[in-house]
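Review form for a predicted model. The reviewer records the input and the model, then writes brief findings.
Reviewer: anonymous (R2)
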Amino acid sequence: METPNHSWRLRHIDIDNYRDNQKKSFRS
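Model under review:
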């Protein structure tokens, strides 16, 4: 059951990066 958790973690990080990129784009 560690694989699904790891996947969720990666997805969560990806979402965080996506939001961060949106903030940067919005700033520009």
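Findings: The longest helix spans residues 2-27.
Further findings: The mean pLDDT is 80.
Recommendation: see findings above.
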